Amino acid sequence: MLKLQDAMIDHERRVIFIHIPKTAGVSIYDAFGSRSQMGHLRLNDHPSPLSSYFTFTIVRNPWDRAVSTYAYLRSGGRGNKFDLAAQEVVRACSTFDRFAQNIVEYRDRLAELPAPGWGIPHPPDGGDPSDRRYPHLLPQTVWTHDHNGEQILDFVGRFERLDADFAHVARVVDSPLTLGHVNTSNRDSDYRGYFTRQGRQAIADAYGEDIETFGYVF
Questions:
Q1: Which 8-state DSSP code applies to residue 76?
Q2: Angle subtended by helix axes 197-206 and 103-111, to nearest 10
Q3: What is the DSSP code string of 21-33?
Q4: pLDDT tens for residues 196-211?
Q5: Percent of the chain beyond pLDDT 70?
Q6: Coil, strand or helix at 110
Q7: In degrees rounded to 5, what are phi and psi of residue 16?
Q8: 66-70, long-range: CB within 8 Å, 24+ apart, which pairs?
Q9: Structural domains present in the chain
Q10: Range 138-152 burial, b when 16+ CB lie within 10 A, else e
Q11: Calpha distance 163→170 (Å, rounded)
Q12: In whole angstroms, what is the distance from residue 29 CA to residue 178 CA?
């Protein structure tokens, strides 16, 4: 197996996993026996895309993902220097509701943090790589679709039906993979209880493309 940053390439199973932040990626890495993770690469970040390989990712309800991201970053994530720098930004936000209502501001503030050694390459088109440094608040379509709105991955599974969708992946790659659940956030189970009307609408505005593309509702 070759692991390139946080986009896993398994040559034996001929599969590429694209890790969107806070969508059970660590559990999936564990299922494939891979523990080396850094960054959140996109499919076209590979210098030589393997077109014959099965490509997949997992997406999550944007409101639920926002709650999980807040809990993760506020706690310091995995404790590395990047997550701790992000923690300082998010800790300035005393409540989740304030975070939700100002989600675009916090996305911008994270993108402005210096991140030497983060390891995310410059985009192939020569664009601004700043959104690669702290990608936890980016829309999920950044990883799943191209600039024309076309899906670029073979399979987009759902966090809400993770076990069933990962079982589908295991069948496609013809491998007896077992999915555990690791790196879970410390939070209440129902994300809806975290939102005021204003916070709910702010997430809807910021992640409208995700909501429309994947058919999510609050």
A1: T
A2: 50
A3: TTSSHHHHHHHHT
A4: 999 999 999 999 999 9
A5: 80
A6: helix
A7: -125, 125
A8: 66/99, 66/100, 66/103, 66/191, 66/203, 66/207, 67/96, 67/185, 67/187, 67/191, 67/194, 68/22, 68/185, 68/187, 68/191, 69/21, 69/22, 69/136, 69/137, 70/96, 70/99, 70/100
A9: 2-214 (3.40.50)
A10: bbbbebbbeeeeeeb
A11: 10
A12: 11
d(CA 185, CA 166): 20
* Nearest residue to 18 via CA among 155, 175, 207: 155
Q: How far, in Å, are 71, 113, 154 from residue 194 at the CA level? A: 11, 27, 33
Distance separating alpha carbons of residues 62 and 195, to the nearest angstrom: 12
pLDDT digits (tens, 9 = 90+) for 26-80: 889 889 887 655 557 777 766 565 678 999 999 999 999 999 999 999 999 888 8
Give the distance, in angstroms, between the CA of residue 217 and the centroid of all CA atoms in the same chain: 19
Q: What gap in Å lies between CA 180 and CA 137, rounded to an integer?
A: 25
Q: How many residues does the chain have?
A: 218
Assigned token pair, 78: 């995995």
Cα–Cα distance, 143 to 18 (Å, whole number): 7
DSSP alpha helix (H) spans, the chain: 25-32, 62-74, 81-91, 96-101, 103-111, 141-144, 162-172, 197-206, 208-214
